[in-house]
Amino acid sequence: MEDSGPYCESPAHETPVAGGPPFAACVLCREPTEYSESVKGVVYCPVCEWQEAQRTACSG
Predict the structure, then answer these.
(1) Residue 56 near residue 37 (C-beta atoms within 8 A)
(2) Is the predicted pLDDT of residue 13 greater than 70, yes or no?
(3) Which of 2, 29, 35, 56 could form a disulfide with 43, with the two C-beta atoms 3.0–4.6 Å apart?
(4) Residue 35: which of 4, 3, 11, 7 has the closest Cα?
(5) CA distances from 34 to 5, 31, 38 (A)
(6) Which residue has the higher pLDDT, 46 or 7?
(7) E-only strand ranges, the chain
């Protein structure tokens, strides 16, 4: 399988997850995420992150 390159990776996944509050709000539903507010880029809550992965996987 070919490497899809860095353009397919979310910036949130390149930054380590901080261990405590305050947590950033999900860009889709505004629920708290697992990421610190200091994380740059688009961040999703676990539910929206999973749903986004499903949409991306099926967009083929």
Answers:
(1) no
(2) no
(3) 35
(4) 11
(5) 25, 10, 12
(6) 46
(7) 23-25, 32-36
